[in-house]
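Reopening: structure tokens for the zinc ion complex, inputs below.
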Amino acid sequence: MAHTKYTQLDIAPTISAALGFHIPDRDGTEIGEIVDYNNARAVDQIVLVVIDGIGATLYRKLQSELNHLPGLSADGVFFEIESLPPRITTPNIATILSGYTPEHHQVYEVADTFSTPVKMILELASDWGIKSGIVIEVMGAKAMADRVNLAIGVENTNGIIDYDHRTASLALKAFSREELTLQMIHLRAIDNCVHHFARSWEDIVFAARCVDENLGQLFSGLLKPTLVMVTSDHPIHVDRWTYLEEGDIHVPLIVGYAGTAV
Ligand SMILES: [Zn+2]
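Re-run output (same inputs, fresh job):
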């Protein structure tokens, strides 16, 4: 799959178009192929998954090790989209969620979320009466608490593998018990592994497989027809491992349909 003209700025406008409203002044534009894919199906809910720290080149290298993520796009849509500077978790998640560049959203650390002049896609959806939620680390959830219908903060108390597993489980419960229409979740095992634990390629493969397994449980546990969008905040940014990305600044955007088996 070749790189596309699309960037992380285009994700929020794509979600808003799929939900039937528009973000008034955004830096990105909707991705027509995904809106068309959504509109051709009966979609009850949307989940946006941000996998921390997996670039397009790393994803290609991991493809043969993964099951559920490649399976999602087999009948869906797959793009390699450009990640924006500074390619750090918090500002890049804000770029994804807002559709604005950092100079406009001005979120460089979690505390900035309280004073950003723009609204995230989850807040805009709530304003439109579309129930939305987020499952993210505790501080991120606190920052979003009064802006969305449900902000679940996940403590990292038993290691990152457990954290990701609970994040995916909570997202499923939130969909079914809270009747949310839009959710964003953040899975951190790969980035956490390369920052703290990775000694070899096999360690990164292990972390990626854990993310893939958690996503498999999420996909199979969805009870309503769901548009699933999976992307990343930035390619690997830990010096020791950046060679795996070969200078590529793109991240995957994997889109598919789940929750229809029930
Ligand atoms: Zn990150």
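The chain has one domain: 3-201+210-258. Residues 52-53, 89, 191, 233-234 surround zinc ion (CB under 6 Å). Marking as resolved unless the reporter disagrees.
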